[in-house]
Design a protein that fits this description.
It is built from 9 helices and 12 strands. By secondary structure, the protein is α/β, with parallel strands linked by helices.
Length: about 260
């Protein structure tokens, strides 16, 4: 199991009617790797994460997680559509943080962090609260555990969302434009939490981002998406310093000129 890639997209396509959002995607992410996905709007970036979370169904291909199919299962030597129980088991390895926080407004920071571990993992309340307290401390919000989302800044809400995702003990963390809804001065505090996760935890991390400086500094690999395909991928220094693809160059020039 440990020799398998953590995630593999094998000829994965996603269509909405006549619109092809992802076209035969081939992408392998190794255990512990930190991968940033960049590209223009509509290029399929967020769809990659949503398919991995099974929030979107794939039309073709197979997604593998630690060598096991996600939306399929093995039966009599063949791959068949997965049962709900199989999908739930595989998806338990994955946590996602959304751009719009998605916190429960009627629950405190602590309540948001203990709900899923208790209902999905079957943790008792005391254990779930101890775990949540550790995670809220880790994201710098230990003193805000009894605050409701409406009492927190956007940056604080996003850090609670990160703690909530980690409470499920995932092996893979997905980040979808997690700073795009934040005021500029709050971006840094969220990025610092992600940096710390990368340093201190054995997580595979897949991030859709417009923060080019952060992608260059943080990632092991950067993938540039355009029109539902990976146009170019490689180490950050190569992608940002000497991109080979003309479309990559156009995109990066436009983003850097926009500041």
């Amino acid at each position: 199991m440990s020799e398998q890639p953590m995630v593999r997209f094998q000829k994965v396509s996603k269509r909405y009617g006549s619109l092809t959002v992802l076209d035969g995607l081939e992408l392998t992410i190794e255990r512990g790797e930190k991968v940033s996905i960049i590209g223009p709007s509509g290029s399929g970036k967020t769809t990659v994460l949503r398919m991995l979370m099974t929030l979107e169904k794939i039309n073709d291909g197979i997604i593998w997680v630690e060598g096991e199919p996600l939306t399929h299962m093995q039966r009599d030597g063949k791959l068949v559509p997965a049962s709900t129980a199989h999908i739930r088991k595989i998806r338990a390895k994955i946590g996602m943080v959304f751009q719009s926080f998605n916190l429960f407004p009627h629950m405190t920071a602590m309540g948001n962090c203990i709900e899923a571990p208790m209902t999905v993992l079957g943790m008792n309340r005391t254990e779930a609260q101890e775990r949540a307290a550790e995670l809220l401390d880790m994201v710098g919000l230990g003193e805000k555990k009894d605050h409701y989302p409406s009492q927190l800044s956007g940056g604080q809400q996003q850090r609670v969302a990160i703690a909530r995702a980690l409470a499920m003990r995932p092996k893979i963390m997905l980040f979808d434009e997690v700073t795009s809804a934040l005021d500029p001065e709050l971006v840094g505090e969220v990025l610092e939490v992600i940096r710390r996760l990368g340093r201190e935890h054995d997580l595979t991390m897949l991030m859709v981002t417009h923060q080019m400086g952060f992608a260059k500094e943080f990632s092991d690999r950067v993938c540039f998406f355009h029109a539902g395909k990976i146009c170019e991928q490689g180490p950050p220094d190569d992608i940002f310093g000497a991109p080979k693809n003309e479309r990559t160059r156009q995109f990066l020039n436009a983003v850097l000129e926009a500041g």
